[in-house]
Amino acid sequence: MHKELQSIAIKDASGYGYNTLKVSLSYDKGEVNMMSDYLPRRGYVLTVIPYKVEDGFRKTKAYDGSKKFIEETKRFNAKRFDALGKELLQGKDGVLNHVKAFVMEKNGFTLE
Predict the structure, then answer these.
(1) Is there a contact between 70 and 95 (Cβ–Cβ < 8 Å)?
(2) Which element (helix H / strand E) includes 97?
(3) Phi/psi at 80 (nearest 5 deg)?
(4) How far apart are CA 99 and CA 48, in angstroms?
(5) Is there a contact between 24 and 7 (Cβ–Cβ < 8 Å)?
(6) Which residues pair with 61 in a beta bridge?
(7) 84 falls in which pLDDT band (50, 70, 90)?
(8) Is 75 exposed, middle or buried (0-12, 13-18, 19+ CB in 10 A)?
(9) The whole model's pTM is what?
């Protein structure tokens, strides 16, 4: 499950031409990654990814965004997923602002 929470207009100083930050919430099943032998926890993940819109397509590069594990759960719950999305947008624990600030600082973005 994946849900886009917010799109934020930005100014890019990196030269790649990013113009938007996409903030989304998703559910990670916690399956094994065969490439890295890493077993992620099962639960909800907040993701912030910069992209640019060009010719009607969203374009981004690998490793410019960031993700943060928010809450562990045994299985997906649609009501909790929607409630968590609302809590994050309202400023729960400042997690959303912290991840957005990290991505913006790392890439040299400013708000429009």
Answers:
(1) yes
(2) helix 95-107
(3) -65, -35
(4) 7
(5) no
(6) none
(7) very high
(8) exposed
(9) 0.82
